[in-house]
Structures are given as structure tokens and as C-alpha cells.
Amino acid sequence: MTLAISNLDVSIAGIPILRDVSMEVPSGRMVGLIGRNGAGKTTLIRSIMGLTSLSGKIVFDGASIGDKEAHHRARMGISYLPEDRRLIPTLTVEENILMPAWANKLKDAPARLDWIYSLMPEIAQYRDRKALQLSGGQQKLVALGRALMPGRRLLLLDEPFEGVAPVLSRRLTEVIGTLRNEGLCVLLSESDATHSSDLVDQVFHIERGVVTAH
Ligand SMILES: Nc1ncnc2c1ncn2[C@@H]1O[C@H](COP(=O)(O)OP(=O)(O)OP(=O)(O)O)[C@@H](O)[C@H]1O
To answer: ABC transporter domain location, by residue (predicted)?
Structure first.
């Protein structure tokens, strides 16, 4: 279940954003991607998810996925927590979590929902509340639940701790640690290593679109 990226180049509007990126997220490992604002973290994560046009190679679980559509990658078990939460404010917590199940017509949605609630019992408590009634940190947990609904083989977390209060950051760290122990591959970006240093097995740094291993 390794993710292997080689010689990835991404330009947006003719401007090179990622340059010759090669890196690996080994099976069952948690890898950190550390870089300042604008370094290219989001662009790299979006490229893995299939949301940019790119040149280079992305291989997941032995299959070349660089030219596959985002929904195909989602079906392979790749899930993505965007930096902004993008919950639908007028839907309930449970409806937000179930959205990807409806979109992908998942038959085992109830079992997946149970697993998400057992991972984060606190969100089960406010399952019937509208998303707009939650704090930013609570919404982040719900967004993580929603990201885990379609697939749980490779989890891409884009700055999950950004703007989250300390108590909920600790809780988020705990939940991500549990996921790692369950064998998920995780790629987690952060602007510095404050929260991720205790979690990750390996760190890559990104600066102006260039990735280096540390
Ligand atoms: N749609 C776009 N159009 C033009 N430039 C873009 C676009 N998206 C990203 N960029 C540029 O690409 C570079 C990398 O942006 P990216 O969002 O990937 O960085 P980041 O490391 O995730 O930063 P942040 O922490 O601020 O989200 C930045 O210079 C940004 O201005």
C-alpha cells in the first residue's frame, strides 16, 4: 500500500509550483510534509488526490494513478482532509459525514459510520446538530470523519491543526495516532513540526516547490 511519487512537476497558470518532487509514504507509515505558507503543500496533496494536472509518476499500491480521476483515487481508498473544512453548514453532522457515501453509492455506509463514531465518540453525540452550530475544532473532527467515510487506506491531511484550539488539537493528535496504529498510510502537512513531530515516522521538507527528505 505504498505511495510513491517520482519526478512530479506541477504548474498552475504556467507558473511552476512543484519541481521534480520524488518521495514515498511507505505502507502503514505516517509521513510529515513541513513547509511555510505558499511552499506547495496543498498543491502536492491535491496532486496526489487528482485535483491538478501534472507530469511525473504517482504509484499507489502498485498501480499508476497519475492519470486517474479524483473519484477513481477515492475509490482506491485515498481520502483527503482539505485545509478549510468545507462542511455544508445547513446539513447535520451525520449528513455531512454521509455525503461521500451517497456520492459513491457505498452499500456499507452504516458500518463505516459506526466505525467513525467509535473512533470519535464525541461526534456521535452531536450527530443531529447542524454543522454551523459547531466550533471550528469540532468541525475539523467531523471533516476528518467525512474524509474517512469513502476510504481508509491512504489519508492525506492538509494542515489539520491549523486554527484548532489546543484541547481539540490534542484530541486530533490522539485520533490520528489511532489511525496510524490501525495501519493507515498517512501524509500530514504542517507549516512547522509543532504537532506532527511526535506522530510521524519520517519528515519531508518542502520549500518553493522542492521536496527534500530529512
Ligand atoms: N490556483 C492557483 N493559481 C495561482 N497560483 C496558485 C494557485 N494555487 C496555488 N498557487 C501558488 O502556488 C504556491 C503554492 O501554494 P500551496 O497552496 O500549494 O502552498 P501551501 O504550502 O499549501 O501554503 P498554505 O499553507 O498557504 O496553504 C503559492 O505560491 C501559491 O500562490
So the answer is: 3-213
pLDDT in tens, 95-120: 999 998 888 788 889 999 999 999 99
d(CA 150, CA 175): 18
Q: Which residues have any ligand 1 atom within 6 Å of their CB?
A: 12-13, 17, 35, 37-43, 83, 191
Question: How far does residue 158's CA lie from ligand 1's centre (Å)?
Answer: 12
Hey, whose CA ends up nearest to atom 26 of ligand 1?
A: 37
Q: Could you tell me the fold of the domain covering 3-213?
A: Rossmann fold (3.40.50)
Q: What is the pLDDT of residue 74?
A: 87
Query: Using one digit for the tens of pLDDT, what is the confidence trace for 193-206?
Result: 888 888 899 999 99
163 CA distance to ligand 1 centroid (A)?
A: 18
